[in-house]
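Subject — a protein and its fold
Fields — amino acid sequence, C-alpha cells
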Amino acid sequence: SVLIGGSSTGRARSGNEVVAHESSVHRPLAYSTLADLVHHVRTQLSPKQLSTVIYIFSRNIHDPTLPLSIQTTSVRLVLNLVDHLYRSPEAQDGTGRDLLVRILTALVTKFNALKEYIPKKIEQVKVRGGGLGFGFCLGCEVIGIVCVCVAWLE
C-alpha cells in the first residue's frame, strides 16, 4: 500500500519530469527495480494498486526517452499481470476486465506506432545500402530484433 499508493502519476516513484529526465541513468534503474518488485508481489496488490501499475508501465511502453530494455520489461510486466487479472476475483466484478482492456489498448497502440516506424527504418537501411555487418540492420537494431529484412529487401 505504501509502495504503490497515492496518486497515479508515477511522480512519487520516479521523480518529477525535470529531475527524471536529467538523471537518465537512474530512471531506467528505478523502473526496472519497481517492475521486479511488482512482479513478485502482484498477487497481493489491490485493484487500485494494479490500476496504478498498469498506468505507469503502459506509459513506459510508449516513452521514447526510455531504453528499449525498459520498454520491453514494461510489456513483460503488463503481460504477466494479464494472467493474474484473468484468474483473480476482481475479474468477476468488472474491475479486472477494465484493467485487461487498458492493457490491450496500450499494446495495440504500441503495435500501431511500430507499424508506422518499422517501414521508415527499413527505407533508411535501403538508402544507406544495407546493414552494419553484425547480423543487424540499422532499423532492426533500434527495435531490438535479429535482422532478416535486409535479405528480404534484395
About this structure: The longest helix spans residues 95-128. The chain has a mean pLDDT of 76.
